[in-house]
Write a structure and sequence with these properties.
single chain; alpha+beta; three-stranded antiparallel sheet; 3 strands; globular
């Protein structure tokens, strides 16, 4: 089972800003967020605003782990 409850295929390339974010956050996950669904950039993110997640290795590189969020619902300007 994945981080979103179930695995879903359809891997896509990460946005460039997530590659930079991975370098700053080794050993976890980085998330692509639909910003049109978030009122406060420093606040809570609704689960349906998370587009996908990429796993980050201990060296801050994307390790190949990927999960699309099956519950993602595009906002007004979402993908």
């Amino acid at each position: 089972m994945g981080i979103f409850g179930r695995k879903r295929s359809g891997r896509r390339p990460p946005p460039p800003e997530l590659v930079a974010e991975a370098k700053a956050n080794p050993g976890g996950w980085v998330y692509e967020i639909d910003g049109s669904m978030v009122d406060d950039p420093n606040g809570a993110v609704p689960p349906e605003a998370i587009i996908a997640a990429w796993e980050v290795d201990a060296h801050g590189r994307l390790s190949g782990g990927y999960q699309a969020n099956p519950n993602y619902r595009p906002g007004p300007t979402g993908r």
